[in-house]
Amino acid sequence: MTLFENMTVLSLEQATVVPYLSYRLAQDGMQVIRLEHPVYGDPNRMVGENVLGEERMNAYFLCINAGKKALTLNLREKEGQDLFYRLIKSLDVDIFITNQLPRNYAKLGIDHPRLAAHKPDIIWLGVTGFGPDSNEGAYDPILQARSGLMDLTGAPQGDPQVLGIPLPDMGTSEHAYGLLMKALFKRQRTGEGSRIDLAMFASSVSWLTVPVTLTGTFGKNITRRGNTHEFFSPVSVYRTRDGYVYLAVGNDRQWQSLVALAPFAALDDPAYRTNAGRIADVNRLNRRLNEITRTMDSDALIALLNTITVPVSKINSMAEVLQDPLVRQRLLRSRDPVSGLEITLAPPPCMTPFLVRHQGEMTFPPRFGEHNQAIYGGVLGCSADEIQDLKARHII
């Protein structure tokens, strides 16, 4: 058994920010049980193509819910809350997580004081858009817009652009992961539980290290710059004969090595020998560099630049990323015991001992209420008739 396999997470989760967090915890081997309303469920279950031909198991949901169990429970009813507190005790829950609006905490009976009364050492985490005093709704693009991330993304004269991945969602998940590890360490040392409130807005703004300092201290106008870099040149996307590469010259030594190569000798201009000189003429320099790179195949150009250790990469499609040997060997997978479908899952930031022991395989994303019988019956001791009655009355 690995370090975290004796821990249980109960997560009242939906959308992306908390499901991705609990997915990361499942990769550590924690028992993750997701709670959903017995009628409405997680809306993300209905997003994307219906690849299994059944309700509430659409493609989008499958991406970040492997390795979990699923219960349905109506926390708006007192009977549902009573079941919830029984789960907290009987499952010996270590961590409770939710991304409900704060106004629902007391209404649903999931507020920290009540959970701590049932289990004093529980670690309670509430993820919100703008903090525990705000009930403002927050989807990822809204956070990108308000935090300035969107204003930093796109072409200099173009419209602000949404990022290619939901950074406020997934970045907040990563920050939450670290906070949970600190809370577990605190509990190990002191025996005390924790309440953690984490706002997606605060998480998103925390990534803006350079823009905040340069704007707040030096009055700079930091905004989108396309593919170039404000402080280094040449750094951008360059067209090749068969595609695109991203090339990054990070210092004057690398520049001198670049122009020492025959194809780039024409760029050996005294004005370009310092980074400041190259930045001063960045648009013209990039045009001249593009005229050279577009005469070369991507692979040949990359091989040439690798000889002088100038960072460069082909701009890969997602299909090409999956074939990268550094990615392919770390991809996770999950097989559906019902249909036999095997899905490919993104690799973790690092392979955990749990994933290594299971050779990168996780249990299939759970169907809606899939573990009701096993947990309400097997753990709480509810009879088949009781479970059927609770289901009929939409308590579970």
What is the level-2 CATH architecture name of the largest domain? 3-Layer(aba) Sandwich
Average pLDDT across residues?
97
Q: What share of residues are in beta strands?
A: 5-15%
For this structure, what is the CATH homologous superfamily of the largest domain? Crotonobetainyl-coa:carnitine coa-transferase, domain 1
How are the SSEs placed, and which strands pair?
Blueprint: E1 8-12, H1 17-27, E2 31-36, H2 59-62, E3 68-72, H3 78-90, E4 95-98, H4 103-108, H5 112-118, E5 123-128, H6 140-147, H7 167-190, E6 194-199, H8 200-206, H9 209-218, E7 235-240, E8 243-248, H10 252-259, H11 275-280, H12 282-293, H13 298-306, E9 312-314, H14 318-323, H15 325-328, E10 332-335, E11 342-345, H16 353-357, H17 372-377, H18 384-392
Parallel strand pairs: 1-2, 1-4, 2-3, 4-5, 5-6
Antiparallel strand pairs: 7-8, 8-9, 10-11
Describe the protein in words.
- The protein has 396 residues and is of the alpha/beta class.
- It has 2 domains: 265 residues, Rossmann fold (3-Layer(aba) Sandwich), CATH 3.40.50.10540; 82 residues, formyl-coa transferase, domain 3 (2-Layer Sandwich).
- It is built from 18 helices and 11 strands.
- The strands form 3 sheets. Strands 3-2-1-4-5-6 form a 6-stranded parallel β-sheet, with helices on both faces. Strands 7-8-9 form a 3-stranded antiparallel β-sheet, covered by helices on one side.
- Helix 2 links the parallel strand 2 and strand 3.
- Helix 6 crosses helix 8 and helix 7 crosses helix 8.
- The longest helix is centred in the middle third of the chain and has 24 residues.
- The protein is elongated and about 85 Å long.
- The model has no long low-confidence stretch (mean pLDDT 97).
